[in-house]
């Protein structure tokens, strides 16, 4: 796995346009994750048609934020689900593990066989108050037609500066160039 904060070069050449995307917030941490869910919802809800929140059942959505601890075997602690179960059985084209986890656990999590492709983000450090605003900016760029991997590369350059305002996270761009699209007028 590449060092955190990088874009992993798995980008597919095709472009996927998600029309009127819905975001889901899956909190598998319980009370420990409530503050992160509230913070992210505040920053991200205005950018989506609908926001679905759950404490256990994976919501039907296009973009899924998961708040969970990953153990050393790559499983979500306290849940029968792992990342492959969620990606394979869900609708989400973008999956963000939004709670911080260590690099070893993240690496084990990536090993589970997935039959569906999704752009997956793993978070090592939310960076205090930068996480929500970073993803809001990323998603605004996607609404403006910049694909997720392109926006990620622009917002999280390999060489960080003193003013760098991004979480320590890695994007596995398996689904490729995903953008958001508004519905066609009737």
Give a written overview of the molecule.
- The chain is an alpha/beta fold and 186 residues long.
- The chain is built from 5 helices and 9 strands; from the N terminus they run βββαββαβαβααββ.
- The protein has helices at residues 31-44, 83-89, 103-110, 131-143, 148-155; strands spanning 7-8, 15-19, 23-27, 51-54, 63-67, 94-97, 119-125, 168-173, 177-181.
Write the layout of secondary structure elements.
Elements: E1 7-8, E2 15-19, E3 23-27, H1 31-44, E4 51-54, E5 63-67, H2 83-89, E6 94-97, H3 103-110, E7 119-125, H4 131-143, H5 148-155, E8 168-173, E9 177-181
Parallel strand pairs: 1-8, 2-9, 3-4, 3-5, 5-6, 6-7
Antiparallel strand pairs: 7-8
Question: Which terms summarize this structure?
Answer:
186 residues, alpha/beta, Rossmann fold, two-stranded parallel ribbon, 9 strands, 27% helix
Give the rounded overall mean pLDDT: 87
Count of separate structural domains: 1
The CATH topology name reads Rossmann fold
CATH level-1 class = Alpha Beta
Give the class from helix and strand content and strand pairing. alpha/beta
In angstroms, what separates the terminal alpha carbons?
A: 45 Å
Relative strand content: 15-25%
Number of helices: 5
- Strand arrangement in the largest pleated sheet: 1-8-7-6-5-3-4
Shape: globular
Order of helices and strands: EEEHEEHEHEHHEE
* pLDDT < 50 runs, ≥5 residues: 1-5
Sheet with the most strands? Answer: 7 strands, mixed
- The radius of gyration is 15 Å
Q: Roughly how much helix do the residues carry, as a percent range?
A: 25-40%
Judging by the overall fold, what is the CATH architecture?
3-Layer(aba) Sandwich
Number of DSSP strand runs: 9
